[in-house]
C-alpha cells in the first residue's frame, strides 16, 4: 500500500456520495478520481425506477475525465459508500463492481499505469488501497484487440500466399 492516504480525494468521493440518487437501495456511492495534472473528477451512483439502468459512481467519474480528454491520465480513484439509512457510516469499504473494474482497467491500459483504487466506507474510518491489476487480474484490455488484429493480419497473409 502506498504510504500516503489521499484523504482529500476520499473526502471528495464521500461528498459526492451524499448527492447520490439512490432512493431504492439507499446505498450511496461516490467516486473521485485524480489525473496526473491534479485534476479531480467525481461521480455518484444514480439509480433508476427500472432498476436495471442504475449507473455506478465510478462510471460518472470516468466519463467526466474522458469528456475532458483525460481518460489516459488517471492516477488514482477514491471510492466511498454505504447505506444512507444506517445509524452510522462506519460500514465495510466499498469496492468497484466487476463492470467498473473493467472500465478502470481501460483507463489504466491507456495510460500505461497501474491505477490505485482507494476503497472506503462513508465516514472514511475504514480505508484500503488496491491496484487495478489486483482487482482485475489477467483483464482484457485495448492491447488484446491490437494483438488480435495483428494475428488476424498474419493469418490473412498466410491464407493469401497459400492460394498462390
Ligand atoms: Zn460499478
Widest sheet, order of strands:
2-1-3-4-5
Bound molecules: zinc ion
Distance between the termini: 58 Å
Portion of residues in helices? 25-40%
What's the story with the biggest beta sheet? Answer: 5 strands, mixed
Question: Would you tell me the structural class of the helices and strands?
Answer: alpha+beta
Q: Name the CATH superfamily assignment.
A: Cytidine Deaminase, domain 2
Output mean pLDDT: 91
Number of domains: 1
- How many β strands by DSSP? 5
- The total of helices stands at 5
Q: Which overall shape is indicated by the principal axes computed on the Cα atoms?
A: globular
- Portion of residues in beta strands equals 15-25%
Amino acid at each position: 500500500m502506498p504510504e500516503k492516504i489521499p484523504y482529500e480525494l476520499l473526502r471528495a468521493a464521500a461528498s459526492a456520495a451524499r448527492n447520490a440518487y439512490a432512493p431504492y437501495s439507499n446505498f450511496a456511492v461516490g467516486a473521485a478520481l485524480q489525473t496526473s495534472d491534479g485534476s479531480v473528477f467525481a461521480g455518484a451512483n444514480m439509480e433508476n425506477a427500472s432498476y436495471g439502468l442504475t449507473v455506478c459512481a465510478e462510471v460518472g467519474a470516468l466519463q467526466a475525465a474522458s469528456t475532458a480528454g483525460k481518460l489516459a491520465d488517471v492516477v488514482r480513484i477514491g471510492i466511498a459508500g454505504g447505506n444512507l439509512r444506517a445509524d452510522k457510516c462506519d460500514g465495510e469499504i466499498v469496492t468497484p463492481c466487476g463492470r467498473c473494474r473493467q472500465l478502470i482497467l481501460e483507463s489504466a491500459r491507456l495510460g500505461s499505469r497501474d491505477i490505485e483504487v482507494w476503497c472506503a466506507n462513508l465516514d472514511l474510518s475504514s480505508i484500503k488501497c488496491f491496484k487495478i491489476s489486483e482487482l482485475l487480474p489477467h483483464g482484457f484490455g485495448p492491447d488484446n484487440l491490437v494483438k488480435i488484429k495483428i494475428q488476424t493480419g498474419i493469418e490473412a497473409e498466410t491464407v493469401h500466399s497459400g492460394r498462390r
